[in-house]
Amino acid sequence: MLVYLSVDLEGVAGIATLDQILRGGSGYPRAQSLMTAEANAAIRGAFAGGATEVVVSDSHGTMDNLLADQLDPRARIVTGGPRPACMAQGLSRDAAVAIFVGYHAAAGAPGVLSHTFSANFTQVRVNGEPVSEAEVNALYAADRGVPIGALTGDDRICAVAREAFPGVRTVETKQALGWSATDSLHPAAACAAIEAATGAATAEASRLSARPVPETLDLEVGFASALGADFAATAPGTDRLDAHTLRYRAPNVDELLRAIMAWYYLAALAAQQSAAVALRR
Ligand SMILES: [Zn+2]
Questions:
Q1: pLDDT tens-digit profile of 78-97?
Q2: CA 281 to ligand 1 center in whole angstroms
């Protein structure tokens, strides 16, 4: 039995600040260790629950945060990017269950370090509803018939997951006190809870089922800057709704994720260009 783990960073216990989640920050190397420890807890849980194979997707930022040499040697790792399915890369029909570790709330929603894929997006909507990364990645999983067995992160994203994913187990690693403030479990306590939840979710994988993927996938993204929207609007098939908002009618989930990724990189390019001009002034 194959178990797929996607591991993000913002929802890991002990993480609250930008300094911890951005490469180059003084807190970043310690954050890599905390992230790797939670990944290992989930890997141990998956094998204890009956997995014979575990794939771990490094799912944060540049997608190369996990300390590969300190990862449980039984797991394979999907690392580095860009990659078309972003966080969900490597999630295949062969997986019995998908587990999301270290997740966080959506852009525009309260929660520790909340955002959806990009700091340059103010909101991501699918069929008119604001969505978190967890919900987008769950669409990708559902398209392959894979249910979400467990999600770990702050109290805000755990509440979203319990609504969105039938039968999901959640581990609240911390309570959100603000966007960059948290009341967190000790990392060791979080790891113990993650191991237990992953084990239980793996053991009951055959009893879970994925929600059907909607027939239409209407993607709308709000961009923080109109220049970001200008850059992103160069992608084929994009409709401009207003200065800050683009829409794309995706023919399937894979194309939905590709569109999010294309807009992600184009908006980042616009932000870099603006920052470079600001520095020259
Ligand atoms: Zn994230």
A1: 999 999 899 999 999 999 99
A2: 33
Question: What domains are defined for the chain?
Answer: 2-114+132-207 (3.40.50.10780), 217-280 (3.30.1360.130)
81 CA to middle of ligand 1, Å?
Answer: 14
For 17, phi and psi rounded to 5 degrees? -120, 155
For residues 184-208, one letter each, b for 16 or more C-beta atoms within 10 angstroms of the residue's C-beta and e for the rest, the string is bbebeebbebbbbbbbbbbbebeeb
Backbone region of residue 34 per phi and psi (left: phi > 0; alpha: psi in -120 to 50; beta: other values): alpha
Pair 16, 181: CB distance under 8 Å: yes
Averaged confidence pLDDT in the chain? 97
pLDDT at 52 over 70: yes
Expressed in angstroms and rounded, the spacing between residue 116 Cα and the centre of ligand 1 is: 7
Query: Phi/psi of residue 184, each to 5°?
Result: -110, 150
Q: Stretch 251-265: mean pLDDT, rounded?
A: 97
